[in-house]
Design a protein that fits this description.
By secondary structure, the protein is of the alpha/beta class. Helix content is 30%, strand content 19%.
Length: 135
């Protein structure tokens, strides 16, 4: 007669499939999450009461207080904005939105020049990033 021997501690629980599922979920959320990154410039954004949330996938063009322009975090001359925006939008595969992040002390004519160059570069939607005012 054969004897079945059982441990006093009970059965072992295999948690390997549970760990696999947790890692798969972690990888899924890391891949599908997009993070909005802003360049580290000291800017005081202009305010607006009619602001809307913008796409995080939009190309960002920065104009600082000294009227220096950055496209995709790279410094450019004003006459280069149009070509750099065109190149960046071609790499973006279908995304045609550009957000201009500027300081409130930048003159309006400089802002209009940058927005105009972005449109000439192929952007279909150009917006200015603001701080939404309460009121």
């Amino acid at each position: 007669m054969s004897r079945i021997r059982r441990d006093a501690g009970g059965e072992d629980l295999d948690i390997t499939p549970l760990i696999d599922v947790v890692f798969i979920l972690l990888i899924f959320f890391m891949v599908t999450t997009t993070f909005a990154k802003d360049m580290k410039l000291d800017l005081q954004r202009p305010g607006a009461q009619s602001g809307e949330r913008a796409s995080t996938k939009a190309l960002r063009v920065y104009v600082d207080r000294q009227e220096r322009i950055y496209v995709d975090e790279l410094p450019v001359q004003p006459w280069m904005v149009q070509s750099r925006v065109r190149e960046a939008l071609q790499r973006a595969a279908g995304e045609r939105t550009v957000l201009v992040v500027t300081d409130r002390q930048v003159p309006a004519d400089k802002l209009i020049e940058v927005v105009d160059q972005c449109r000439l570069g192929g952007a279909t939607d150009v917006g200015v990033v603001t701080d939404q005012e309460q009121g």
